[in-house]
Amino acid sequence: MDVAASNAVSTALYMNQAQTAEQAQMQVFRQALENQAEQVTEVLASSTAGAEPDLAQEGSLGTQVNTFA
After folding, report:
1. In the chain, N or C terminus with fewer CB closer than 10 Å?
2. How far apart are CA 69 and CA 60, in angstroms?
3. How open is the CA angle 52-45-31, to the nearest 5 degrees?
4. Contact 66/55 with Cβ under 8 angstroms?
5. Given CA atoms 6, 7, 12, 13 in this order, what sign does their dihedral have?
6. Type and span of the H or E element at 16
7. pLDDT tens per residue, the chain (69 residues)?
8. Contact, 47 vs 53, CB < 8 A?
9. Which one-letter DSSP state was computed for residue 56?
10. Is 60 within 8 Å of 51 (Cβ atoms)?
């Protein structure tokens, strides 16, 4: 077998293995990003759940100053 052909086959096989490894890494990276997005969504949802109530819209009390403690 010609040395140049052998080197070309070897390089092609190496590139195929490298591409497979890169695809696996990208899949793990995407899953990590999806997990982070879910966690951020949960944190944001929980932060608005305990938000301070709004000022009263009518009446003489609670329409000017919110003294929620």
Report:
1. C
2. 20
3. 160
4. yes
5. positive
6. helix 3-49
7. 577 788 888 888 888 888 999 999 999 999 999 999 999 999 888 876 666 666 667 766 656 666 655
8. no
9. P
10. no
